[in-house]
Write a structure and sequence with these properties.
Helix 4 runs parallel beside helix 7, helix 4 packs across helix 10 and helix 7 packs antiparallel against helix 10. This protein has helices spanning 8-42, 46-49, 63-68, 78-107, 114-123, 133-143, 149-172, 177-185, 190-201, 203-219, 222-227, 235-240, 250-270, 272-280. It has 14 helices and no strands. The longest helix has 35 residues, at 8-42. The protein is mainly alpha-helical and 285 residues long.
């Protein structure tokens, strides 16, 4: 029976892989602990959730979730959730419609001084959001768009578009030029090329870009808090309503945070394969 002898180099490589695997598990646990703590706190009563040190073995209850769904106040969370979903989904679709042709022009068919255009897109993210809050508020007030989901769609689209262009450009740069040249020879126009050739090839990149833009839109609070009210309030704004200056609220806030985080977690879990492929696309040349 043949036996294998591990060389010093093989043992070193195996130890490195084991150490990296252990480090990855530790990082995953560290990132997961706050989420697990939030879920556990949401299942405690308010007095148990407010104890210091925390009462880990306290009795479990779903009272916090009942409060989130308006058991005592009668306020339903569904309108804010629908507003967040509508604004996030519509802005993400608009971002894709605008960013894919822009990324195509900056990568596959590069325009002159394309690098200057890319850095201009990136420079728009350097302005603090609070610096543009007052002008946007005045514009929205004068145009009658305050407390309107359409305003949030426009804002989220403009906020996520630079990131989407940068991401899509890196994905589209991996598309073989020969495929596009063959399509052009066959007489395919630009819309056909983008829809039937480019989109299927970079589908993982589109999924990754869509998910990131959706998460950014879903989690946005500053503009939604200032520019919306009763009609167009979003889920993060609804969440802040549980924070009060009187009484205990930690369990209710954690329950609301869990419920509001579920759509993003479900979307990320459903698209995890495409997300990993998209984020790793172009990483190895």
């Amino acid at each position: 029976m043949a036996t294998t002898i591990d060389t010093p180099g093989g043992l070193t490589a195996r130890r490195k892989r084991g150490a990296l695997g252990l480090l990855a598990w530790l990082c995953g646990i560290v990132f997961f602990l706050p989420v697990a703590w939030m879920v556990l706190t949401s299942l405690h009563s308010e007095p148990d959730a407010a104890t210091n040190p925390p009462s880990i073995g306290a009795p479990l209850t779903v009272q916090g979730y009942r409060e989130f769904f308006g058991a005592s106040t009668g306020v339903s969370p569904w309108p804010p959730l629908i507003n967040s979903f509508s604004a996030s989904l519509m802005s993400t679709l608009l971002v894709l419609v605008l960013s894919i042709p822009a990324a195509y022009a900056l990568s596959i068919k590069p325009v002159r001084k394309w690098s200057d255009a890319m850095f201009f897109f990136l420079s728009t993210k350097m302005l603090p959001a609070v610096a543009g809050l007052l002008p946007i508020y005045l514009i929205a007030k004068n145009t009658g768009l305050l407390d309107n989901v359409a305003l949030l769609v426009i804002l989220y689209t403009s906020m996520n578009l630079p990131i989407a262009v940068w991401m899509m450009r890196s994905f589209l740069s991996e598309v073989p030029v020969e495929i596009l040249e063959a399509a052009s020879i066959d007489g395919a126009g630009l819309p056909t090329v983008l829809a039937r050739i480019v989109a299927p090839v970079v589908a993982p990149g589109i999924a990754a870009t869509s998910l990131i833009c959706f998460i950014f839109s879903w989690n946005e609070l500053l503009f939604a808090r200032v520019l919306t009210g009763v009609v167009a309030g979003t889920a993060p704004v609804f969440l802040t309503g549980f924070v009060t200056s009187q009484g205990l609220f930690l369990a209710k806030v954690c329950a609301a945070a869990v419920c509001i985080s579920l759509p993003v977690l479900i979307a990320g879990f459903a698209a995890q394969d495409k997300l990993v492929q998209g984020l790793s696309l172009g990483a190895v040349k």
